[in-house]
Design goal:
The protein has about 300 residues and is mostly beta strands. The protein contains 1 helix and 16 strands. Strands 1-2-4-5-6-7-8-9-10-11-12-13-14-16 form a 14-stranded antiparallel beta barrel.
Length: about 300
């Protein structure tokens, strides 16, 4: 019999997978570097990640762009807890994603966007990718952008689409929805990916926000790790948190940001190749922090 707590947990995870799923066409970041750190409460484990990505819009014709992209992630998940029956030593993972996007305008300020890429994510014990390390990512979207209105109305933007990612283990695309709206010159809110927030602007250079966000990673484990609880063939993390954030603009296009928060879903697991859990590394909620620098249009 399934416990009520498990049903609630599954419901929250499904909600945030749909609400915060990764999508790019609504984003305007051309380059970003960031560092994430959060310790594990009631544990000696810790999670650190460096991430950098770049989008390079190449104009094909007026309003139409091909957008090559590249992303790199370096994850250090240190496991020091004594799991009694489990011996697990892999703690360093990397991912490399390359791909291309394509976008063109349609009628009435609608825009089409598509994106496809190949991701390699693994501990790379053999120092080169294997077939199990490769994953496909892709999505199709339509965007309605009314952020530069001439009728005096409040700016807004809507993104609707579908997306597919083989790291999630789902054999079908997921729906996607993202909505942004300015309430006045000071206040705005976003519902969607990769976060929901309500933001207050002090001036052109400084703003604060209250956010809820989904974060995570997935990687193959080369040379599968045998444990007395089963064979660990991949590692996955799904974290949802809420907290405050601050952003400072050095120029119109360059800004630095810092987020702090506390998780309300902290699900880090070793799994076998069928997606079955081998070990829950940690599920205690804890402090979360992230800092970064970005360049946007």
């Amino acid at each position: 019999m399934i416990k009520e707590s498990e049903i609630l947990r599954l419901g929250l995870i499904l909600f945030f997978v749909f609400a915060f799923a990764k999508a790019y066409p609504q984003g305007t970041d051309l380059f970003r570097v960031e560092y994430t750190y959060f310790p594990q409460r009631s544990s000696d484990n810790s999670f650190r990640r460096f991430r950098a990505f770049a989008n390079v819009p190449l104009k094909v014709k007026e309003g139409t762009y091909v957008v090559p992209f590249l992303e790199y992630r370096n994850v250090e998940y240190i496991v020091k807890d004594d799991f009694i029956l489990t011996d697990f030593g892999s703690d360093r993972y990397e991912s490399f994603e390359v791909g291309v996007g394509y976008t063109f305008p349609m009628k009435n300020n609608w825009r089409f966007g598509g994106r496809a890429g190949i991701l390699a994510a693994s501990n790379f014990d053999e120092e080169k990718p294997r077939s199990d390390d490769y994953f496909f990512t892709g999505g199709l979207y339509v965007i309605k952008n009314e952020r530069k209105r001439e009728d005096g109305g409040r700016p807004w933007r809507l993104v609707v689409g579908v997306q597919y990612n083989t790291t999630a283990g789902r054999p079908f695309p997921l729906p996607y929805l993202n909505y942004y709206r300015e309430l006045n010159k000071k206040w705005s809110f976003t519902i969607g990916a990769p976060k929901m927030n309500i933001k207050y602007r002090f001036n052109e250079k400084n703003n604060v926000q209250l956010y809820a966000r989904l974060d995570g990673f997935y990687a193959n484990i080369q040379n599968d790790q045998p444990t007395t609880r089963g064979v660990a063939e991949n590692v996955s993390m799904l974290v949802a948190m809420i907290g405050p954030g601050y952003e400072h603009y050095f120029t119109k296009h360059i800004s630095a940001y810092i987020y702090a928060g506390y998780t309300f879903i902290n699900d880090i697991r070793l799994r076998d190749d069928n997606g079955n859990d081998v070990v829950t590394l940690n599920d205690n909620n804890t402090f979360y922090s992230r800092v970064g620098l970005k360049f946007k249009i």
